[in-house]
Amino acid sequence: MPRTWIDATAVLLAAVLLGGCATSKEKLLPHGHNTMLDIWQQETGGGEGGGPTARQLLDARQGLRRPLNEADVQATPAVQERYTRTASNEIYRQFHRLPNPDLVMYVFPHLAGTDPVPVPGYSTVFPLYQRVQYAMPGERVEDY
Predict the structure, then answer these.
(1) What is the pLDDT of residues 85-117, one digit of tens each?
(2) N or C terminus: which one in the chain shows less Cβ crowding within 10 Å?
(3) Long-range contacts, stretch 97-100, CB < 8 angstroms, 24+ apart
(4) Separation of alpha carbons 68 and 74, rounded Å
(5) Measuring CA to CA, which residue among 35, 54, 27, 33 is closest to residue 43?
(6) This protein's superkingdom (predicted)?
């Protein structure tokens, strides 16, 4: 029986696929004796040994945990003053509404329902945007 090019291609494809299975997992993906917990503790400095990484991490955490000094305490109200509700700014709007123009749509006369009932033409109004949007304090000052 004569061989065709399809048979030769099938044999070549099978040889390539079976050759891929001959590779060792250890050769392809070698690993050491460390577990994931060992690697985690080594990289984050969480083990008994600590190391330079652990010291840097601890220093960064201590910098974030520092107490507020007097200058920080005095500067905080000035930053939040525009957003804080007080008796003097309670009567003024802080968050102005952004424009949401109304659209007028004309519906032509048509037939509606399972028993075609004539509906006369009419106009309807709906907002351009689905939700009302608000500006941040100081972003929009003109009234609408």
Answers:
(1) 777 666 666 777 888 899 999 999 999 999 999
(2) N
(3) 97/132, 97/133, 97/134, 97/135, 97/144, 98/132, 98/133, 98/134, 98/135, 98/140, 99/144, 100/127, 100/128, 100/129, 100/132, 100/133
(4) 10
(5) 54
(6) Bacteria
Integer-rounded Cα radius of gyration of the chain: 37
Q: What's at 98, amino acid-wise?
A: L
Number of CB atoms found within 10 A of residue 22's CB: 6
Is 14 within 8 Å of 8 (Cβ atoms)? no
84: amino acid identity, one letter:
T
Tell if the pTM clears 0.70, that is, is over it. no
